[in-house]
Amino acid sequence: MLSSPILVSLALLISLPLVLFLSQQLLPQFTFPFSPDADDLALFHHPTTSVVSPGGVFHNRFISSKPTQRASPSLISAARRLLASALLDDPLNQYFALVSQHCVPLLSFRFVYNYLFKNQLMSLASFSDFNLLYPSFIEILSEDPNLYERYNARGENVMLPEVPFEDFRVGSQFFILNRKHAKVVVRDYKLWKKFRIPCVNLDSCYPEEHYFPTLLSMEDLNGCTGFTLTRVNWTGCWDGHPHLYTPEEVSPELIRQLRVSNSSYSYLFARKFSPECLAPLMDIADDVIFRD
Ligand SMILES: *[C@@H]1O[C@H](CO)[C@@H](O)[C@H](O)[C@H]1NC(C)=O
Ligand SMILES: *[C@@H]1O[C@H](CO)[C@@H](O)[C@H](O)[C@H]1NC(C)=O
């Protein structure tokens, strides 16, 4: 076990009511590879309707939840509830990773832990503040052809004055935040007041892809890498759903391929995997995924 007292908290966000039944199938088995690192890792689980706590590493970490829905601010709320619970759970929780049941790890949790704490901003090494030293991994993009429609999804200029269009950002809803930024998210009221307004244009309504990158770029852009550690494959997808990997596609080669990025960071997680991928993934877990 690592001697450092600093913990990484991994939040499993069960995002859609639709997949709950599947998540119940997934969870008990998913707890298995987590266990060896349990001392360094705390797992929180947010289901969307009543689900029996899977126990194990989720013991006492089953967050009471509310239903969530696509194209509504409920996914933001769910992520904030998870962050709040993980912040309160242990003051030593320093990193907060948000994933869903369709995200799979590409490397061991020991590797994830070491990777996060290895990637400190060396130029700031003289700062004693942990949160200045260790960046948050969240995608923050200002260029997107649909940005203007998405900005006005709640009505023309509704976001003003708190969120001018120039400050509106987009990025993956899966991120790893440091403690300071997790607190920024949980404490925020100013932007949440706007993002919680229901959309009038549901076709351009993706609140969770905008709230977190917009808030953190406004609050502390320099403390963020602008890069998510969760790989997603949008090739050939136009309907708002990324490529869903099927069991036939799962292979050691795919795992190795998904780790590689164009940035100086590599990917630690990937999505989206169908529930049926669990068996072939478990088959290669020890020899490929968790072998660093
Ligand atoms: C991405 O998805 C496309 C199909 O949409 C597939 O052909 C391609 O192999 C995938 N790429 C990776 C790296 O998995
Ligand atoms: C890396 O960049 C190339 C060229 O722009 C692109 O085709 C490829 O999809 C990128 N790979 C990843 C993992 O983003």
UniProtKB/TrEMBL annotation:
Keywords: Glycoprotein, Glycosyltransferase, Membrane, Signal, Transferase. PANTHER family: CORE-2/I-BRANCHING BETA-1,6-N-ACETYLGLUCOSAMINYLTRANSFERASE FAMILY PROTEIN-RELATED (PTHR31042), CORE-2_I-BRANCHING BETA-1,6-N-ACETYLGLUCOSAMINYLTRANSFERASE FAMILY PROTEIN (PTHR31042:SF108). One of its GO terms (cellular component) is membrane. Its main location: membrane. It is found in: Membrane. One of its GO terms (molecular function) is glycosyltransferase activity. Pfam families: Branch (PF02485). This is Core-2/I-branching enzyme. It is a single-pass type II membrane protein. Residues 1-21 form the signal peptide.
